[in-house]
Design goal:
Length: about 280
Amino acid sequence: MSLSMSEWLAMREAADAAARARELLGPVRRALPAGPDRRGPLVIHDLGCGTGAMGRWLAGQLPGPQHWVLYDRDAELLKLAADRAEPAAGDGTAVTVEPRLRELTTLTAADLAGAALVTASALLDMLTRDGMDRIAAACVGAGCPALLALSVEGRVLLDPADPLDAEFEAAFNDHQRRDTGGGRRLLGPDAPEYAVAAFTRLGARVTARPSPWRLGPGHAELIGEWLRGWVGAACEHRPALAGPADGYLRRRLAEAAAGRLRVEVGHCDLFVETAGEPSPARDT
């Protein structure tokens, strides 16, 4: 039986946390208002929050009171994110949340006014070029930095290797770049590179760091669920793979269950520093 979205997000949360590029935390902290420039809680806008994993990971690593504005277009996930929010910052001060049911690509600089930081996780590859351009314009227009984590790069390494690995990888990547109708083609594994270009065109500075999943014997359940989705999407895009997929998946699942399979899934984290003036409400 396939997992619900909330179940899948819960299963992957620990792997996501382990993969995040912790070396970007220093630049994030330095970009936040502090001392006399900080008069009130940090306001952090989390785009595509899902069940709130980014907030649970990051809130406790930032100092001082925080107010997280959570955006998602799925009302059920949004409620879970609000209910499961991290209650305290790194120094024990309060963290509050405000859920907003919203289509992310309609956000403007006015919506993000007052944000000390914008965050997103596992989101950019699900955007189109136009959607990415809109989010970049909103962040830069509001003058707030952004931490954009866990965008897929399209690179998958499995150990031991199998002759079919490359075919499934290529078909999956093509599926991620699929046209969803009306000429809306998703960025998929091109998202990190395109996001860097979109922000740079607007005068922002972007730091990119790898954030790969590294899964091994302790992740058999997650590897199995990821494999089913990876192979299934590849076959959906390239139906000719359906024949060899049965045997391939059977072999790979057996290796995972026996603790013999290691998987590395490439992701990229981006930290964006805007060149504009700080958002006015930072000082409120």
